[in-house]
Amino acid sequence: MLWLRANPDRPTWKVPKSPTDAEVRSAFERLVAYCGAYETNEEKHYVIHHVEADRQPALIGTDLTRLATVTATRLVLRPLDLPPGVAEWTVEFERVGDSMPVSRHP
What is the rounded distance in angstroms from the CA atom of residue 49 to the CA atom of residue 37? Predict the structure, then answer.
């Protein structure tokens, strides 16, 4: 599984092959990216992502547990533990069109 979320409106670099420190920092702001194997528990409604690569190297080798709600067209993930100061964090995926099979497993 691979997860990548980035701000599509972030500014481009003035010199693409030689960004400034500020431009590099800006590119990583609000960027979430990780990948790895995952497992599901349908009875308890959660998915565990086993992080094999991450934007934040300290998370490599850790497990991210998410509560999962699945319908015919939607997957909603919520973390068990929220960062300090965050009241709610929800990620929703919605299937569009009929080209993809419906999965009942997160």
Answer: 6
Give me the residue label for tokens 């929703």: 92
pTM flag (> 0.85): no
- What's the CA gap between 49 and 59, in Å, rounded? 11
State how far the Cα of 105 lies from the Cα of 75, in Å rounded to an integer: 9
The percent of residues above 70 in pLDDT, for the chain, comes to 92
- In angstroms, the CA 75 to CA 70 distance is 5
Task: Taking residues 7-30, report their average pLDDT.
Answer: 90
| CA 97 to chain CA mean position, Å | 22
State residue 45 phi and psi, 5-degree precision.
Answer: 60, 50
The CA angle 103-36-44, to the nearest 5 degrees, is 50
